[in-house]
Structure formats: structure tokens, C-alpha cells
Amino acid sequence: MKKSLHDRGVIARYGAFLPVSEATPVVSLNEGSTPLIHSPKLSERAGAEVYLKFEGLNPTGSFKDRGMTVALSKAVERGATTVICASTGNTSAAAAAYAARAGIRCAVILPAGKIAAGKLVQAFAYGARVVAIRGNFDDALRIVREFGGVEGVAIVNSINPDRIEGQKTASFEIIEELGEAPDLHILPVGNAGNITAYWKGYREFQAAGRSAKLPKMVGFQAEGAAPIFRGHPVDPHTVATAIRIGNPASWEGATTAIQESGGGIDIVTDHQILDAQQWLASHEGIFVEPASAASVAGLLKRLSPEATQADSLPRHKGAKIVLTVTGHGLKDPEAPVKHGGFVPIEADADLTAVRRVLDKS
Ligand code: AN7
Fold first, then answer.
1. Which CATH number does the domain housing residue 316 bear?
2. Is there an atom of ligand 1 within 6 Å of 20 CB?
């Protein structure tokens, strides 16, 4: 790999497990190495050790950076002058940033009106050409697929295997941090690239003798955008716009991960998602975007007295559960503000007035 001493990203850390060679120019923003944060409050509720893999702390604020460093490095190595992707927002932000870093063009195809404000700003700020189509993510991906084979253009959606390769490094980090794989891994599922990637990472590190065990993989979809749970494509609707996807490209990869690991796929409502988002921020100080809170909502659903699948939670002493929280809360301020009814309390500019309103609230 042509990497510099400054590189601290996932290619520098895990190049031996990635499809890179001496000839690969490394395009990196020092992504990865995100914190695995212990959650005392979720641990107490679950009767197990619960950790949050906070992927919102990547350079563009989501896990997409892990796959994008590999995808852009390989695209440049192959001589691409333009990258293109369909996106619900985070992929486009990451593609645009890494293309800027590489000095090549980026075009992003987005569902009009369904991209969180922060993500749309990112695409523009990083200099991408932004096309909003009158359709959903699945329509956008159909159009992007049709660019396959166009000279000089590389598709950087997760249908590009380089993306999955980069994203699998999150599993490596978790194993290195915990000393072995957790018993259960929970994550949100949209286009299903991430659950596919995590499972690949866990299996590869197990094969390399780095972990004796493998986790059960449990994915959560939004109730209104749950094609895998329902067993057929759907017209997707959810406040968690990142996972507003009706026909996931990596459906098969998700099914394999779930079946081979003995895990499952389940749903959470928009209300459960937004409640979990607010709970996590106000109880653990971790602010994630709505789609990411599907992990937490999922765990809480399994812990509720009505849970029918509570038996799938590991109950033995010292059991470990990892929840991936995929994106930063600042990406999408609108949804939580509406849900929480967040408005500041106004007061006159003196101590008495401020104390009066604080005592009342
Ligand atoms: C915060 O950006 O699909 O199941 O185009 O942004 O691997 O698709 C985003 C997906 C979860 C779901 N959490 O991951 C896109 C896009 C966040 C996300 C997912 C996404 P996949």
C-alpha cells in the first residue's frame, strides 16, 4: 500500500485483511478505531455487559467511512475519475468526502425530500454533484446500477464488495477490545450491507484464531421499512430515513448472517426508535441518529415483559452484547426535536428570572 506515516485509518490498521496491495493509493481520513463504550444502565437492565460501538465518531459521522476508504482507494487504483452512489444520506456524505480527499468527482443520487439535513449539507460541502430523484432509495440504486460499465465511473454503494471489506473491520476492533467476539451483536438493517460485513469480519477473525466464538447477529428494521422481516419488498416509510429502504441489495448476505449465527431479524416502531434515541442521549450521553437508535430500541424491546423472543438474549454470567450505533445524532436534528418537543425556556436576562424558570421546570 502507498500509505504515509500519517495514515491511521482502517487500511493502515487492517491492510492484511483487505484487498489492497503495494500499488493501492490509500485514501483515508483516519476512519475507524471508534470507541466501544460500556453502558452501565443498559447492562443493568439486560443482566449482561452491554457495549455501544459508536460509529457516529467516524470522520463524516457514520460507519460508512470504513467501507468508503477501501472503495475510494480501489477506485483510484483502477483509474476511476468519478464515483457515484445512491443513498439515504450517509453513504453520499462519506463518498463525497473521500472523493474530495482523492481529488476525483462524486455524484450522489438521493430520494428527494427524504435526506436528513446534516447529510445533505455534507454532500454539498464536500463538493458532490447532488441529484434528487422523485422516487425512493430503491429507485436511486436501480439508476446507479445502470452506470455499471461506464468508463471511468466506479459505483461505491455496498454492491461494491470493497465497501463490505472495509466495513468488516468494525468486528475486528470489537474482538480486539473484548478479547473475543460478544455473545450477541445487534444492529440496524437497511440495505443490509453492514450486517453482511460484520458477519464476514467475525468469521475471518475466528478463522485467524483471534476469537473462539461467534456472536448471534440480530438485525432490527423499522416497522414501516421491514422487507427482510416480512419476507418481501415493501414501499418503505419510517422517520429513520437512513433505513428507509424497501428492497435491500444485500438481502442474501443478511439472511446468511442471521441463519449461520443463529440470530434473527425483528422490527421496531418509529415511536420506539425515537424514544430509544432520547433515552440513550439523556441516560448515557450518547446522541445517535434515529436509524442507529433502532439497535437500542431493539434491545429494549427484547427486555420488555411482552417480549416473545426474550430467550434469544444471552443470560449467563459475563455475557456480552454489542450494539452498533451507526451514525451521529447531529446528522438529523429535526426528528428528535419534533418527537421531544424541544424548546428552550425563555427568561429575562437576570439571575432572578433565570432561577425562577429553572425552579419551575
Ligand atoms: C445511520 O447511506 O443505506 O443495512 O445510503 O445510514 O448497511 O444499509 C445508510 C444506511 C444504518 C443501515 N444506520 O445500514 C445510505 C444507507 C445508518 C445508516 C444504516 C444506514 P445497511
1. 3.40.50.1100
2. no
